[in-house]
Structure formats: C-alpha cells, structure tokens
Amino acid sequence: MSVLRRQVYVWQFPIRFFHWVNAVAIVGLFVTGMYIGHPIFVSPGEAVAHFFIGHLRYWHGVFAFVFIAIMLFRLYWYWAGNEYSKFRFWEKGFGKDLVATFKYYTFMTPEHTVRVGHNALAQLMYFIFIWIAGIFMVLTGLAMRGGSDPNGIVQGLFGWIVPTFRGEYQVRNLHHLVAWGYAIFLLSHLYMVIRQDLLDDDGTISAMVNGYKFVILRPSIAAEEQDPIENLTATEVDH
After folding, report:
1. Residue 177 in 3-state DSSP?
2. Residue 232 carries which DSSP code?
3. pTM
4. What is the pLDDT along the chain (239 residues), one digit of tens a residue?
5. What's the rounded Cα separation, in Å, for the pair 158 and 139?
6. Among 92, 97, 103, 201, which residue has the fewest nearby CB atoms (within 10 Å)?
7. Fold category of 24-201 in CATH
8. 157 CB contacts (<8 Å, ≥6 apart)?
C-alpha cells in the first residue's frame, strides 16, 4: 500500500522566533538563578572587587525581561497566528486525546492519534509550564526584585506578593522549586519531540527551523481519528 507524504507549513516564523527566544531565556534564567541560589566559586577579597554575583543578577534580570516580552508577543500571536498557533482545551475529544497520547509516550499503547500541530499532551504541558508557571515565576521574581528598592515602582506594583506567601523566604523557596519544574519540562519536551520525529518521521524537529512538517496520509486510519488536513489527498494539502 502506497503512503502519501506532503509538506505542510505549520509553524509560522513568529512561532519559531518565540520558541527559540523563549528557550534561550528559560535556560539563561535557570543557569543564572541556580548559581545565584547556590554559588560554587568563592573569590578571595571584598565582594566589591569582584561583583560576580552582581553581574549574574543583572543577566538574570535581562533574561527575565526578555521572557516577559516574548510571552506578551506570544499572547498576541495566539490571536493573530494561524490555527496551529492556538490551544483549545475545550474542544470535544481533548480529554480522550490527552489520555491516549499520554499512554503512547509512556509505552502503554503502540498507537496514537496523528496531529499536524501540537497534540493534547503537548498543549497541556505548554499551558502549565509556559503560561501558569511562567506567570508565577514572573510575579515572584518581580516581587523579590522590588525588595532591593523599597520605594521603587516594582515594589509598589508587586510588593503585595511577599506577604501573601508569608515572607520572602517562602517566595524564594517556591520560585526555586518551580524553576526545577522547568528542568523536568525541558527533558520531557526533548523526549517527546525526538521520539515523535524518529517514529512518525514527520520532521517535528526541523519544523521548528523551517516551519514545515510532513503529513502522512494513511488510508487505513479512520477519517475521524485524523486531523482534518490528513483526510485530504496529496494534491489538496495546502502549502
């Protein structure tokens, strides 16, 4: 039985730009944040003569504001982008697809529903770690930053967060704990995309560079189990 393959333009340039800038920002935040919390190297002499941690705090702040800016941009592109840039948790069948996809990636079933864009599990992970956790990290980070300038605008806007969590110590602990969640998210993300690319041979990894994925049209799969685009003939799939 012949297998039809077709390139489909899935990830627009703004989505790819967001992906890589966001990745750099998160890695930069994690590395600088972990070192600030647990310094490894101790230089002899007065701190003012070295200021290494001060430089790290500066770059941590730079990465943080890049993260905020790119998240605002992604929020805008949710409305301005194509269908693949949108998450829709409320759609019928999302829960069923989520369970099936989870079973597939945990080796409980050999099959999964083919999706051109993000599958249900990826959508949920991005929503939790990029949006929910991201907003939490921004708020707690700005709250701690405001403490260095009690009369500044940052403290005025976000100072309420520290007493809400019963002190800066708790805020720092929670900020640190959620940061480790990003490490788990990164490893899970890499596992999912590499597995998807190798087993489905759909160009998942290269798609985040050039925007194109390979759609495999398999007549043996029931039409209702495929994305609408997969029910088209090869000549009908739009670039």
Report:
1. helix
2. S
3. 0.82
4. 556 778 899 999 999 999 999 999 999 999 999 999 888 766 677 766 778 888 899 999 999 999 999 999 999 999 998 999 988 777 788 888 899 999 999 989 888 777 888 889 999 999 999 899 999 999 999 999 988 888 889 999 999 999 999 899 999 999 999 999 999 999 999 999 999 888 888 889 999 999 999 887 655 443 444 454 444 333 333 33
5. 7
6. 92
7. Fumarate Reductase Cytochrome B subunit (1.20.950)
8. 142, 146
